[in-house]
Design a protein that fits this description.
By secondary structure, this protein is an all-alpha fold. It has one domain. Helices cover 82% and strands 0% of the residues. The protein contains four helices and no strands. Helix 2 runs antiparallel to helix 3. It is flat, with a radius of gyration of 21 Å.
Length: 134
């Protein structure tokens, strides 16, 4: 039980440190807008999508539940990584910093995740049917 107080106290210290760093910024409201946007995107877009996929997985049956879950984890991770370049305003002063078309590459990565997920689920279903027939 004591470790919970230690971990909680450490968390409070880190929150205080982060708050102090935030107040040192020239425009701390921008960080607040970014954090609020993250909450809105999560609660308004990501969570309903995960719930819809979970409902679909339950409707399909107990077997493929892990496949859509894994695909959502991969897609979410790729989105979190690509989000800053996707949302950056305008161009950058140094063209070599972000030389790629991140929107196109993110869409290609999402399409690859979707296609590979469908192929994996299809092959898995076919193999299961073949085993059942034997």
């Amino acid at each position: 039980m004591a470790y919970r107080y230690v971990v909680g106290g450490g968390g409070l210290v880190l929150m205080g440190f982060g708050g102090a760093l935030l107040l040192e910024q020239p425009e701390p409201w921008r960080v607040a807008v970014w954090l609020a946007g993250g909450v809105l995107v999560h609660d308004g877009l990501i969570a309903p999508l995960v719930f819809a996929c979970a409902a679909l997985a339950v409707a399909v049956g107990p077997r493929p539940r892990g496949v859509p879950r894994a695909a959502l984890v991969v897609a979410g991770s790729l989105t979190v990584i690509a989000l800053p370049p996707l949302l950056r305003p305008g161009g950058v002063a140094n063209a070599t910093v972000l030389p790629f078309d991140y929107a196109r590459n993110w869409l290609l990565a999402m399409a690859a995740v979707a296609v590979l997920t469908l192929v994996y689920a299809g092959v898995r279903a076919l193999l299961r049917r073949a085993v059942r027939r034997r």
